[in-house]
Amino acid sequence: MADTEDKAVRIELAQLRQEHRDLDAAVEALSIAGNADALQMQRLKKKKLLIKDRISSLEDQLFPDIIA
């Protein structure tokens, strides 16, 4: 059972990392184009931050810090 959960977490983690990269590329493209709507940029950056937080949470599940 733990292996199934571990696999599901790893799949979600990979999807979130890809989505984070896609958002990063979108933010970069908008800033280069110079016609970026400030509100749109703010929303994209906020979504990136939320995804990064979720990634960190999942990584903590997979690789807990064990301090001896």
Structure description:
The two termini are 27 Å apart. This protein has one domain. By secondary structure, the chain is mainly α. The relative contact order is 0.15. The protein has helices at 2-33, 38-62. Keywords: Coiled coil. This is DUF465 domain-containing protein. It comes from Roseibium polysiphoniae.
Question: How many domains comprise the coordinates?
Answer: 1
- Strand percentage: under 5%
Give Rg in angstroms: 16 Å
Mean pLDDT: 90
What's the number of extended β-strand segments? 0
State the major sheet.
Answer: none
Straight-line N-to-C gap: 27 Å
Short description:
The chain is an all-alpha fold. Helix content is 84%, strand content 0%.
Helix and strand topology:
Blueprint: H1 2-33, H2 38-62
InterPro entries: DUF465, DUF465_sf
Pfam family, one: DUF465
Protein name: DUF465 domain-containing protein
Key attributes of the depicted protein:
elongated, about 70 residues, single chain, mainly alpha
